[in-house]
Amino acid sequence: MALPFFGKKKDKAPPPKPAAGRPAATPAPAGTPPTETLLTMEMGGTGIVVEETSGAPESPVDEAAILYASGQTAATEQLLRSVLAQGDRRAWHMLFDLFRVRNQEKEFEQLALDYAMRFETSPPVWQSLAPAPAARPQTRTESLELPGLLDKSAAAALRDGIAAVPKAAVVRVNFSHIEMIDEAGAETCAEILAAARKAKRKFQVSGVDRLIALLQDLTRATHSRAGHWLLLLEIYQTLGQQEAFEDLAVDYAVRFEVSPPSWTAVQAAEVVQTAPAAPADDALRLSGEITPANDSALQQVGGYAATHSEVIVDLSEVTRVDYGSVSQFISVLMQCLGSGKSITLRGHNALIHELFRVMGIDQLAQLIPHQPR
Description:
The chain is of the alpha/beta class. It has helices at residues 60-69, 73-83, 89-101, 105-119, 152-164, 183-198, 208-220, 226-239, 242-256, 296-306, 326-338, 350-358, and strands at residues 2-6, 37-44, 47-54, 141-145, 149-150, 170-174, 180-181, 202-206, 270-271, 284-290, 310-321, 342-346, 366-368. A four-stranded parallel beta sheet has the order 4-6-8-9, with helices on one face. The protein has a four-stranded parallel beta sheet with strand order 10-11-12-13. It starts with a strand and ends in a 5-residue tail after the last strand. Mean pLDDT is 82; it is low at 1-32, 34-54 and 134-142.
């Protein structure tokens, strides 16, 4: 197994000439970090053989990875845009992730349109990687978790929970745990949501797709109950889904031969995603940027490795690994390997993945990058 790590820099050799028919890589802007010298260590039964190799970028993708690791995001974007026409999907996904890190949704969506036309396939879906903004101190959000059975007692708990939240605050309701809905609970819940809507309460809801699916199944039943219809109508009203509301209202009038509730224009509830369940493993999860000035992350890796035979590091919330931290990162990984531990680095964005590949970290650890959806 070849294990690359940083060695002392020797006299710089002249850059290789580009191969015939292949354009030379775009010259790096001023301030690009000097090329590191790598050593390749071959572990065999006869001993250790150390061989020096160059870590110079061999393609624009390599160069962009190093530029980004050096904090030169504008130059990274310029270089990646200049090579998109070459059709290398790595460059496209690096630019997608750059926009995600910088929270540039508009640019991301335009790139997604270009990607779909260029490759005739679905593009990645927007999901920001930028650090979450600090919550405003005057805004208070309450989370109300509804149980598996939505009955009158669960609805009463919902009423009490809403009443306990200041009127100017946002009420967050999690419907994702609901498995069963009885008629009395549905009717009471519909009344509570209708009253809150008329009082102009602000809502955030999660797990609502599951609740809608359950109610749709109940309304399709041969002996469906009016309470389930009314709750579904109120959910559509709360979400601001007027077309779905009106379609269901017509069916309700036909089914029960009564006038349905009327649509009222109100501020729609905000739909938020339910927090994903934590993975079954106890991977070390890092976040933010890994830089020489903030080396606590690498210290965490060392401490974690000391108590685990299998080192799994989740980098899904890491936005950048600084170029100056790569040598220390490699040193930590080498120590893990020297102790006979397996290493997995997962969830990292495309920019970090290409940096790891250029610097030889793919020879030290199994890399499982973030897969765009």
